[in-house]
Amino acid sequence: MTPRPAETPATPPWPEAAALLAALRPEMLALMDDLTATMFCAKDVTGRYVAVNQVFVDRTSERSRRTVIGRRAEELFVPELAEHYVRQDREVLGSGRWLRGVLELIRRPGGAPGWYLTSKLPVRTDGVVVGLLSVSEDLRTHDAADVAVSSLSRVVALVHDPLTEHLSISDLARAAGCSPSTLDRRIRRVFSLSPQVLVLRTRIDHAASLLTSTDLPIADVATASGFYDQAAFTRTFGRLTGETPAQFRRRSGASDRGATGRPAGGTG
User: Is 170 exposed, middle or buried (0-12, 13-18, 19+ CB in 10 A)?
Assistant: First the structure.
């Protein structure tokens, strides 16, 4: 099958779109066009689509990217799905933090819903959030009620809860309603990670976001990311990133923001 040629994006007529596109490399946008099972979009701070790939267009009732650009989720998707997207976007734009590895049911072309793995990240220019990028990978399950995938939504919620400091594989297996060995297979199938690495990656991702978007003390970052003490957090962070939390923060410039403890560049 011959792939459809990429459309050249028109120059956006509104300033928020121009600000976001100026922060994105054309090579990255071109690469997104080559994805065949992953939806991609870039939204400005007003919630309007600035860039999308053809996979994204195919999940709407439109046929061309030109008819999607400049519109909002509520103009393209059913109300409950659009409201869900808007809530996610507000969280990312308002906090300046990543949303990573969220399991979602999204309707595929033809009407059948399927499981997708969604991540969203804020885009900044000079410390100010100018928009977000979103990708949703089709997990290609054949049944929206697939127990192997749907049970992992409970596991993901538990992993993202910083109050559950000492998560064991047994805890995760109980949340999924399966044995530890079955859980291991399911998580590797969906995330290509072991359960232990999924927990650590999620918490280090959260910590990195706090280090780069707030000036919270490192001890508070450790607690907010589910680590029982700062020393354990520092060891784990260094092992996985190659830098101490303080080094990571200095390199990001987050330590220069003052003493508010609030996200930098948040948009209300």
Answer: exposed
